[in-house]
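User: Please predict the structure of the protein below. I'd like the answer in structure-token form so I can feed it into my own downstream comparison script.

Assistant: Understood. Taking the following sequence of 107 residues as input:
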Amino acid sequence: MAHIKIRKAEQVRLKNYVLKEQKTFSECAILLGVNRKTIQRWLQKLQLDIQVKAAQKGPAYEKLYHLYCKEHKNTEEIAAGLGYTTEGILSKMKEIGIGIKQNTGSR
């Protein structure tokens, strides 16, 4: 894949459009003057694609994304805190595309 360059101003606008205003990829493309596929590549590069999926699924998925990807909690901690089974958490993570980190003993 070719190197993808995104100007800072476009990054800020894209994040605002998809996360705060919940615009579709097509709407973002029109507003930023690029192709819809470009929006998808930018989201992947900025590692926002999973966060966007979580936001689209609802608050429970956003919380799961935040706990696992931002607070670096493991699946057992998340399950206990949210009242789910570990298998339930793993299933929800798979639904939105969160890759499972292998247990290295550091967590």
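That's the full token string. The chain has seven helices and no strands.
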